[in-house]
Amino acid sequence: MEDVVIRYLEKPKIKEPVFIEGLPGVGNVGKLAAEHLVDELHAKKFAEIYSKYFPPQVLVGNGGLIKLVNNELYYSKAKNKEQNDLIILVGDYQGLSPEGQYEISDAILKILSDYNVKRIFTLGGYSLGKVVAEPKVLGAATNKALVKEIKKSGVKFLEGALGDSILGASGLFLGLGKFYDIDSVCLMGETSGYFVDPKSARAVLHVLTKILNLKINFEELEVKAQQIDQITSKLKEAEKVKPKREDLGYIG
Amino acid sequence: MEDVVIRYLEKPKIKEPVFIEGLPGVGNVGKLAAEHLVDELHAKKFAEIYSKYFPPQVLVGNGGLIKLVNNELYYSKAKNKEQNDLIILVGDYQGLSPEGQYEISDAILKILSDYNVKRIFTLGGYSLGKVVAEPKVLGAATNKALVKEIKKSGVKFLEGALGDSILGASGLFLGLGKFYDIDSVCLMGETSGYFVDPKSARAVLHVLTKILNLKINFEELEVKAQQIDQITSKLKEAEKVKPKREDLGYIG
Amino acid sequence: MEDVVIRYLEKPKIKEPVFIEGLPGVGNVGKLAAEHLVDELHAKKFAEIYSKYFPPQVLVGNGGLIKLVNNELYYSKAKNKEQNDLIILVGDYQGLSPEGQYEISDAILKILSDYNVKRIFTLGGYSLGKVVAEPKVLGAATNKALVKEIKKSGVKFLEGALGDSILGASGLFLGLGKFYDIDSVCLMGETSGYFVDPKSARAVLHVLTKILNLKINFEELEVKAQQIDQITSKLKEAEKVKPKREDLGYIG
Amino acid sequence: MEDVVIRYLEKPKIKEPVFIEGLPGVGNVGKLAAEHLVDELHAKKFAEIYSKYFPPQVLVGNGGLIKLVNNELYYSKAKNKEQNDLIILVGDYQGLSPEGQYEISDAILKILSDYNVKRIFTLGGYSLGKVVAEPKVLGAATNKALVKEIKKSGVKFLEGALGDSILGASGLFLGLGKFYDIDSVCLMGETSGYFVDPKSARAVLHVLTKILNLKINFEELEVKAQQIDQITSKLKEAEKVKPKREDLGYIG
Predict the structure, then answer these.
(1) Full residue range of the structural domain in which residue C109 is found
(2) Is C3 domain-assigned?
(3) 196-225 of B, contacting A, C-beta below 8 A
(4) For the segment B83-115, what is each residue's pLDDT rounded down to a tens digit?
């Protein structure tokens, strides 16, 4: 079995697209924002990414149908000259191990490179450990010109001299993206980190849609966050009665 | 050493067999059911599966003879036109790591694909966290037609909208099976999850044998569960006095 | 870097040797016994085994000289017709991960197969969880004839019906040895499991030397156990002040 | 993606250089010493080392610019005949897993071998578990002649009979360096192990610069240690509000 398996449903014709990543993470801000964007733009799924670095697990969806956990790539075409073609990455999980995270991000970057992606935006949450009334959007980027440009949209860039760091896919797409000569920005919404945070996702989407000249509706964001909260609770509950490591062991 | 080693004892001539998986898991429902089926059908072992993803461990059996932990494939030929040739997977352990679980399941699916397996049934337990008097059988499957068909046998399909998921081999054979174009169903017997559950295994086997037009005796199931309980206790006791990680360390 | 690196110091001419394994484990019975045998027989080191599955660690020996942790193969030639040429495996550690244990054991078995090893004895401790005055020697083996033969030397074979198992190298050489068609026996001395146990090692060596027609002196065994105890204490003490995982982390 | 990726900025012409390693570890003595040496000698970066065995993480530096965590090689040319050309290794992290540590060290040794490195000095801390007023410098080496030579500079060599060992890169470069026929010494400054220790780093640098006939200023060492302490605190604080394993999980 290959480490990372890409299954194409379609090979869309898109031109110098902008790539947007939103996987599970702090406050699920990135995931919530990216999935909302997929829905609002009616973006179309064109590739599924499977990997042995994801959990060995299928999710059961409506009507008892199963789905192997994965990451998915969607695309959306520009509606006018101010917009860009987009590729959006969403998914159930990030890789479980450090090696897995590197391998999966690098495999996706190879696809992005083939599509001549010219810019990457990774979306995430920046945990403050306390509830925040008006979440700001913080940023980090791969070069000075980009920092300058993105600052104009109200993003406050991290002054990392004192040890800020970005973990997981939101960091790796920037770090590994450099090897593919792709300019990259990470946008992080301030969040408590304690629950799924639609307010923070809204703040991030606000900035992102402004930069990309997109118009979307934010109403469903709150509803989506509630659904996610519900599923999270159910999953955590299920965790308690799920097979544990010892249940995989020898018994007779 | 290869990641997964297949040792054939025989290459049976079987026609479009149905595959049944029953490995250790919640309440050992799947293991108990599949092993009982092997015994009742006098199924014949034709392949042994070894892997570095299993524990580095040998089991000591009757007369002081050892056996390296493994998974095993059995086959049983149809006795009439209403029945199918069968391949049954049983084993001591599932893979220890996520990567291992993917690799082992995929290696076995390659064999199944060579044998033109037309349908997969994975067997397991669905933990309720409390004792259940009359365990129902819950299901999940890879396509709608299959859900409809299996429902007729009294299986209640999961409506996973709220976060149900299936972990380990019982899930992976469905998820990865899709890549081999094999229709798959998971049958889960409700169980407390606290002990080896013959009642739940019986409920699962009841449904499975009905679907596959098999006739088997259920009497030994209770005895087998008691034996497994005994061995489990012994193993847990042994665990307490077994070498710990630090015993593998440098000492002089 | 190769997973397992074999460095030959010599390619001895030995004939159908018997292989003896004694690595760290329960009560360090196997390690103590095998190292004592090496000393008493003046066995000669002919190969060093290094691996990325061992800890990333060097040991500091006399005079400040370092040694990368490893396993080592010694040989000893038969002194008369009743004896066999021997290959003895000793070492600082077993592999850290299950995969590593499989890979290292298999790599060594390839060497043994090249040397036409005709029989394997693995040595270990069988933990009883309580102090034992007169440790018995327990056994397990790969075939019935061998069980019968070894029983004559006073070994009590495990009747594993209730879940006995052998972990690590002492088990794997038996289990994987089967793939190389090598007959194998594991000899385990009963031990409390709480400290380095020279009495148990003596019991094991007693049986082994009887089977192999060897004559050795047991006096130094007690002294050796005391040294090992001392080193173990020092290492455990050192553990407390050694770099922890977080010490490998980013700091500035 | 390759396991270890080397990115050359330059291929310097250096002659039989001496290699100095200083990565994070006990009291960050080695890191502090090596980074100070890079600064004082105005050493020039010529290669960056990335690996999937490092954490999947980018660091945010001044102005919001990111950097994928890595190790880096610097070089400095001899200023007179008493000095040597130098290669210095510094970095954010050591490999996370044992396998990773072996792979990364071995990949770097391949580079060193190409540059005909004639001697290796690894720098680290030796934790005493208590504050020490006048830290001594302890040593270990790969051969007797080297021990004798280095002792002249006031280094006290470990008499490891009682179980001393060196973990991580500082140990592996010595252990694996033997396979490349490179003479190696580890210099460890005594330290409490509880905080970043400029006094211990100074003691180590004192010895090293004496051996290598280098003249450097030690004033900035204290300042640098304070900065590192500050960053460490910030990072530990951040740890508390960073995404945990479960935040990478499925949520909706």
Answers:
(1) 14-248
(2) no
(3) 196, 224
(4) 999 999 999 999 999 999 999 999 999 999 999
